[in-house]
Design a protein that fits this description.
The complex is a heterodimer of chains A (169) and B (325). Chain A has two domains: 2-77, Beta-grasp domain (Ubiquitin-like (UB roll), Roll); 85-168, [2Fe-2S]-binding domain (DNA polymerase, domain 1, Orthogonal Bundle). Chain A contains six helices and five strands. Chain A has helices at 22-29, 74-77, 85-92, 102-117, 136-142, 153-168, and strands spanning 2-7, 10-15, 48-51, 54-57, 70-72. Chain A has a five-stranded mixed β-sheet, sandwiched between helices. In chain A, helix 3 (85-92) crosses helix 6 (153-168). Chain A is globular, with a radius of gyration of 16 Å. Chain B is an alpha+beta fold. Chain B has 13 helices and twelve strands. In chain B, a hairpin with a 2-residue loop joins strand 10 (240-249) and strand 11 (252-261). In chain B, strands 4-5-8-6-7 form a five-stranded antiparallel β-sheet. The radius of gyration of chain B is 19 Å and the shape is globular. In chain B, helix 5 (87-94) packs antiparallel against helix 9 (163-169) and helix 12 (284-295) runs antiparallel to helix 13 (307-323). Classes of the chains: A alpha+beta (169), B alpha+beta (325). Chain A binds chain B through residues 1, 17-19, 21, 40-42, 45, 48, 54-57, 60-62, 64-65, 67, 108, 111-112, 115, 118-123, 128-129, 140-146, and chain B through 1, 3-6, 8, 26, 28-30, 33-34, 37, 46, 48, 50, 74, 77-78, 80, 83-84, 87, 90-91, 94-95, 97-101, 103-104, 233-235. The complex binds flavin-adenine dinucleotide (FAD), iron/sulfur cluster and FE2/S2 (inorganic) cluster (2 copies). Iron/sulfur cluster binds next to helix 8 of chain B.
Chain lengths: 169, 325
């Protein structure tokens, strides 16, 4: 299967078995190993990447379904000398222990803040129509698709809060 | 995964044409790929329908909504019309899966997601749904997620969707296109089949038929709620859930629609319970009576008998919430 897609701003041509997931294409074919494989079944969020600006689990998608799509991985959000605001906030707040879930957490949080900006409600929003607040309860619910086996949750929530507060100015 | 042939369809006609001889449509892929990795499902061909023009939500002339089969769960939950006129649907969607999964999961795929029965997922176990005639390991086994209504001696699995429960309370219908291009629409009450002796046949869809849309009539009530109980606060399937739509007039319940998740092989409804409530003023005794009637015909296993009292309490709580003030 030949597939053309954009990854972190670069045009890539893949030639892979149709069974190749987007996750394996990124890690094995394009050697972008920042994106992690936890469960490989949509249950942990370690494989979260952005596709056309939206967060998805790359383990539950086939690479060949992404012809023409724009993918952004943790490498595309920022690198050690130019960290994104969320990457910096995770560092400042110790938002991790082993770090395995962190790329997925940061990709997920990046898209989650855009979802809030777009006014999407969540399961814990009292009012479906009001602009959602950025309380700890809202952050936890919206980030529930990202499991942290080290349970760094309190610091993850603090990191996301700080980045969001800075963005709001 | 067992190797398969992959084809991207550009139109509904092409998709239904390609969907023969063991082929399966793929939409979001969040259920299908999970099951293909475990070799619970092994289609010979995947027909990718993501490029079809089925992604819109439109107002209908009758005052309802037409939801394209490829509308993502997150877009449906976020749609201003759904949030204001069909809040039970927005709430049910938001109570399901995770942000990542809802971005990918589609309306059609959500309706057709398979059961979460542990034995269905484990190819080392007998399962009549996965392998007709092999037996049912769940009966007498681990049944925390299993059904108490509509089961048979051949299968006691639940349909795990939250979205479909809200759609059942809203009297949705499902628009289907066959390979000749004919479209028909089937009420959601007629769409799912009870397991009986053939639990592997789950809906009235014939091989190769494509869901093109879900149609919602105007909402039957302005008071709507979705209450879901699960083993953790988020990102877990329902143990039991209740979708309720109520219209009040002069202190009485003029119209009542209640659908239940986590308890049946399809989103469950009970006309007798609704008839008992309609026309009456809300009261704790009445709600208790309704809850008793609802579970009167429950058939339980050791592992899921807890759903009988739980469902009664969740129903009473939901009715309280819907009728107060
Ligand atoms: C970890 C996890 C947690 C989850 N939690 C929940 C939860 O709490 N509540 C809940 O409701 N769901 C939950 N889900 C399930 C999720 O909602 C479904 O996987 C999703 O809705 C399926 O949609 P899809 O588009 O990805 O379907 P796919 O996987 O693409 O398809 C599913 C089936 O539908 C068929 N199909 C798809 N579209 C059409 C069409 N238009 N016409 C005909 N056939 C079609 C496919 O052939 C396939 O057989 C969870 C899933 C995971 C992995
Ligand atoms: S309950 Fe149904 S799905 Fe589960 S093992 Fe029995 S036959 Fe299979
Ligand atoms: S690896 Fe994709 S969700 Fe766990
Ligand atoms: S930091 Fe170890 S899993 Fe999250």
């Amino acid at each position: 299967m030949k597939t053309e897609l954009t990854v972190n701003g670069r045009r890539e041509r893949l030639d892979a078995d149709a069974r190749t997931t987007l996750l394996d294409a990124l890690r094995v074919h394009l050697e972008l190993t920042g994106t992690k494989k936890g469960c490989d079944h949509g249950q942990c969020g370690a494989c979260t990447v952005l596709v056309n600006g939206r967060r998805i689990n790359s383990c539950l998608s086939l690479a060949c379904m992404h012809e023409g799509d724009e993918i952004v991985t943790i490498e595309g959000l920022g690198e050690p000398d130019r960290l994104s605001d969320l990457q910096q906030a995770f560092l400042s707040h110790d938002g991790f222990q082993c770090g395995f879930c962190t790329p997925g957490q940061i990709c997920s949080a990046t898209a989650m803040l855009s979802e809030i900006e777009a006014g999407w409600p969540s399961h814990v929003s009292d009012d479906l129509d009001r602009t959602p607040e950025l309380s700890s309860t809202e952050i936890s619910e919206r980030m529930s698709g990202n499991i942290c086996r080290c349970s760094a949750y309190p610091n993850i929530v603090e990191a996301i809060k700080e980045a969001a507060d800075r963005r709001r100015g | 995964m067992i190797p398969f042939d992959y084809q991207r369809a550009a139109s509904a006609a092409e998709a239904t044409g390609l969907a023969r001889d063991g082929a399966t449509f793929i939409a979001g892929g969040t259920n299908l790929l999970d099951l293909m990795k475990l070799e619970v499902m092994a289609p010979s061909r995947l027909v990718d329908i993501n490029r079809l023009d089925l992604g819109g939500i439109e107002d209908t002339t009758g005052g309802g909504l037409r939801i394209g089969a490829l509308v993502r769960n997150s877009d449906l939950a976020g749609d201003p019309r759904v949030r204001s006129s069909y809040p039970v649907l927005a709430r049910a969607l938001l109570a399901g899966a995770s942000g990542q999964l809802r971005n990918k999961a589609t309306t059609g795929g959500n309706l057709l997601q398979r059961t979460r029965c542990y034995y269905f997922y484990d190819t080392a176990m007998p399962c009549n749904k996965r392998e007709p005639g092999s037996g049912c390991q769940a009966i007498g086994g681990a049944t925390r997620l299993h059904a108490i209504f509509g089961t048979s001696d051949h299968c006691i699995a639940t349909h795990p969707s939250d979205m479909a429960v809200a759609m059942r309370a809203l009297d949705a219908s499902i628009e289907i296109e066959d390979s000749a291009g004919n479209r028909r629409s089937v009420a959601i009450s007629e769409f799912y089949r009870l397991p009986g002796t053939t639990p592997h046949i789950e809906t009235v869809l014939k091989p190769g038929e494509l869901i093109t849309a879900v149609l919602l009539p105007p909402p039957g009530g302005t008071r709507q709620a979705y209450r879901k109980v699960r083993d953790r606060a988020s990102y877990a399937f329902a143990l039991v859930s209740v979708a309720g739509v109520v219209e009040m007039a002069d202190g009485r319940m003029k119209r009542v629609a209640l659908a239940f998740g986590g308890v049946g092989p399809q989103p469950w409804r009970n006309a007798e319970v609704e008839a008992l409530l309609e026309g009456k003023a809300p009261s704790a005794e009445l709600f208790e009576q309704a809850a008793g009637l609802l579970v009167a015909k429950a058939r339980t296993q050791a592992g899921n008998a807890f759903k009988v009292p739980l469902l009664q309490r969740v129903l009473s709580a939901t009715l309280n919430e819907l009728t107060k003030g």
